[in-house]
Write a structure and sequence with these properties.
The structure holds two protein chains of two kinds.
Chain A: E1 5-7, E2 10-13, E3 19-24, E4 31-37, E5 44-50, E6 53-56, E7 65-68, E8 75-79, E9 88-95, E10 105-106, E11 110-114
Chain B: E1 4-5, E2 10-14, E3 19-25, E4 32-38, E5 45-51, E6 56-59, E7 62-67, E8 72-77, E9 86-93, E10 103-104, E11 108-113
Parallel strand pairs in B: 2-11
Antiparallel strand pairs in B: 1-3, 3-8, 4-5, 4-9, 6-7, 7-8, 9-10, 9-11
The chains are: A mainly beta, B mainly beta.
């Protein structure tokens, strides 16, 4: 079974430029999460989707961050414009259903460097 | 406000010995706890979990202990193997929210020395 796929794996951009990350969850997984992991810290939830609905985006900085999951499968996370402090690893995770018992499966992440 | 804390950034243990990783939390609503393991350039992978109705959960070489009164949990790995060298994250969740909204600690880098 294929795991969570993310692309690109690495991205270097200049500040004020836009950037987008793509995630393909495990087949059949309805719940999708985007996390940000700063250096030396644990992952922090940005947004959670149930199918195509964003059910928790309370920690998404909405002034510059946006996300979508149009057909309830793939998802994209966008930053526009990027700031120096956005340098981090952006992780996507998925789980079969929306339940506290379900294991979240993480992708390898996209490492973003903003210069 | 760091609700989940792993105060040891790193830990070095000799192969074959016991590794003990610690985690403290402040939110008394947390009632489900997990440990994730992360290798370089990979995403975290689930290792073991424990519900607050238990004080111990064991899976092979891995055991998690929960002390609710102290708001403390620990992960024991015995015997430690070189492949256990990784960063370990503790995570907590309030299951009354219905979904698995995880709050992670900062991680502890475990190095197993041959």
């Amino acid at each position: 079974e294929a795991g969570v796929v993310q692309s690109p794996r690495y991205k270097i951009i200049e500040k004020k430029q836009p950037v987008a990350f793509w995630c393909n969850p495990i087949s059949g997984h309805n719940t999708l999460y985007w996390y940000r992991q700063n250096l030396g810290q644990g992952p922090e939830l940005l947004i959670r989707y149930e199918n195509e609905e964003a059910v928790d985006d309370s920690q998404l900085p909405k002034d510059r961050f946006s996300a979508e999951r149009l057909k309830g499968v793939d998802s994209t996370l966008k930053i526009q414009p990027a700031e120096l402090g956005d340098s981090a690893v952006y992780l996507c995770a998925s789980s079969p259903i929306n339940s506290w018992q379900e294991t979240q499966y993480f992708g390898p992440g996209t490492r973003l460097l903003v210069l | 406000d760091q609700q989940v804390k792993q105060n040891s950034p790193s830990l070095s243990v000799q192969e074959g010995r016991i590794s003990i990783l610690n985690c403290d939390y402040t939110n008394s609503m947390f009632d489900y706890f997990l440990w994730y393991k992360k290798y370089p350039a990979e995403g975290p992978t689930f290792l073991i979990s424990i519900s607050s109705i238990k004080d111990k959960n064991e899976d092979g070489r891995f055991t998690v202990f929960l002390n609710k009164s102290a708001k403390h949990l620990s992960l024991h790995i015995v015997p430690s193997q070189p492949g256990d060298s990784a960063v370990y994250f503790c995570a907590a969740s309030d299951t009354l929210q219905g979904a698995q909204k995880l709050v992670f600690g900062q991680g502890t880098r475990l190095t197993i020395n041959p």
